[in-house]
């Protein structure tokens, strides 16, 4: 309404207000509010600026729940509905993952049993790893990505890429994971699908030597390896979305920036109490270090399951 008055200065304020049936007191109150916004409006402006920074820092990934969680971690008192409104007014939104994948099975291979049964939870780190392969298109041809994810913290413990989706790729990924984590023989399950790379003699032999139990879900059923499939949705939707890659090297850089630079260390998750995977593991180990000493001859039932 104030804009309409400004557009017709020759008519006079009172004339316009009379035609619009708006009391002059209301008009002048709006005018004062424009010049001297109330405390709530000033606070909205401040919050919107911080929300824009958080959203940009997440490369546009975070929606209102995670933005609200970050503000809460910073000690900013604000309601979730208010964050939703301010993001909507600022035309900010998160991204929604979409799934796409496939498995090539070797019909002659010996399959491992399904030790997970769609229960992708673990009582501690290095108790359940899930793994899978996915393809990323580049100008040089396909690039295959292999990754291993810890079910306890959702952390990507290792990833590797190759122009070929062979057993060497998944074996290299496993070697990186074993070298970077403290794995107790007989305590870790390595869960994959029926892909020929995971039924290869190279991989199954290495798992046996490391004391890691092999597990496999059914072919063609994303739910039987849902935690690994979910990782591909996140990477392709959040890390690689809308990008065209000329070379495989460009993809590797983008993966490094997303997985190591953002996902593991900074991407908060509601399932983890709005902590990042690394923060969640650090919290676990800190709690373990300060816990009361227990009888060394007694093992916790969850850790022996």
Automatic annotation (TrEMBL):
It comes from the Bacteria. InterPro entries: HTH-like_dom (IPR025948), Integrase_cat-core (IPR001584), RNaseH-like_sf (IPR012337), RNaseH_sf (IPR036397), Transpos_IS3 (IPR048020), Transposase_IS3/IS150/IS904 (IPR050900). Residues 121-285 form the Integrase catalytic domain. Involved in the transposition of the insertion sequence. PANTHER family: TRANSPOSASE INSF FOR INSERTION SEQUENCE IS3B-RELATED, TRANSPOSASE INSO FOR INSERTION SEQUENCE ELEMENT IS911B-RELATED. This is Transposase. It holds the Pfam family rve_2. It comes from Streptomyces umbrinus.
